[in-house]
Amino acid sequence: MTFSGPLLTSQTVSTQWLADHLGSDNLVILDASVLPATSDQGPRMISGLEGYITDGHIPGAVFADLFRAFSDPKGDHPFTKPSAEQFAVSAGALGISSGNGTDTTVVIYDTSVGQWAARLWWLFRSFGFDTAAVLDGGLTKWTAEEREVTTTQLEPEPATFSAVERPELWVSKEHVERVTAGEIDAALVCGLPPKEFDGSAGNRVRAGHIPGSISIPAGRLVNRETNAFLPAEKLSQIFGPDLSERQVITYCGAGIAAAADALALTLLGHNNVAIYDGSLNEWASDATAPLFAPAHANLPADVNTLAVAVTQTA
Description:
The chain is α/β, with parallel strands linked by helices. The chain has helices spanning 15-21, 49-54, 84-93, 115-126, 138-144, 173-180, 194-197, 232-239, 257-267, 279-283; strands spanning 3-4, 12-13, 27-31, 34-39, 42-47, 61-63, 102-103, 105-109, 132-135, 170-171, 186-190, 214-215, 247-251, 273-276.
């Protein structure tokens, strides 16, 4: 017998949908928040677990650790996607069942503009799990509507998760190199803020973006008051008509904001989207990989090779 959770009809759900289904059987809600912080070494990212515990969360939600459980701790760069084995163990530990006659419905949110939730959603999708959705507007919209939050923590009942990899949802540095060389026809979409795109800000070893990219910051995809995605018509205008018939590769600093772009494209019906997981953390660390930084156009030629501290910029 198959025990199914609430039916999903889209890759996102509304706050009202979630409120209506709180407490449903086989529904798992995940808080995937990651927060910005500063240190003596500069800006960095920290786990949102403390906020989940002390500030509260949506009733029934459990915390999903994108730092450890859902990233490869041995990866060369922060937030490297985990192996199928690690993902299966981590998802199962949160009570998410797949591939054994049961279907869990998963709803994911964060406290930002949705990029962290989108990253975890993309991971689920890339490991063969399609009954996951992002809460549109996340905790920001939920609390703005004065919906209930709680500090009560639930202990999930472990489940068995079977991961089936979909490698076509990721691309490697070598693939992107072939795109920039004109050997593969694909569009490159950068999800970073404009100042990082043009090279006037950022903390990577080199500044700028991969040549030929278009800039579509993750923050531009949402209503900044509610953090909910803009209407489809607006999103279509932002991405433009030129992407519809091509592979679209999204990237950013660490493959996080890229996931928000990938989610938006999926909502628009694009079915040939992939994320460059290493993104600029990998690309910029290779001195031979080309970068374009308009903000540095009138500066000495070696300005983009100046080393600065590498942080966990997403």
